[in-house]
From TrEMBL:
One Gene Ontology cellular component: spliceosomal complex
Protein name: Pre-mRNA-splicing factor 38
Keywords: mRNA processing, mRNA splicing, Nucleus, Spliceosome
Nucleus keyword on record: yes
Annotated localization: Nucleus
Pfam family membership, one: PRP38
Similarity comment text for this entry: Belongs to the PRP38 family.
InterPro entries with a match to the protein in the record: PRP38 (IPR005037)
Function statement: Required for pre-mRNA splicing.
Predominant location category: nucleus
GO biological process, alphabetically ordered: mRNA splicing, via spliceosome
Amino acid sequence: MANRTSRDAHTVKGTNPQYLIEKIIRTRIYDSIYWKEQCFG
């Protein structure tokens, strides 16, 4: 499963948008059933 940012996404102040959310929250999102079934199903 790739949790990479889309190439079309805009940077926010030069930062990857997914890094605006803390790592622990991102990990919980990536491990959720919804993310695995709906986003990469």
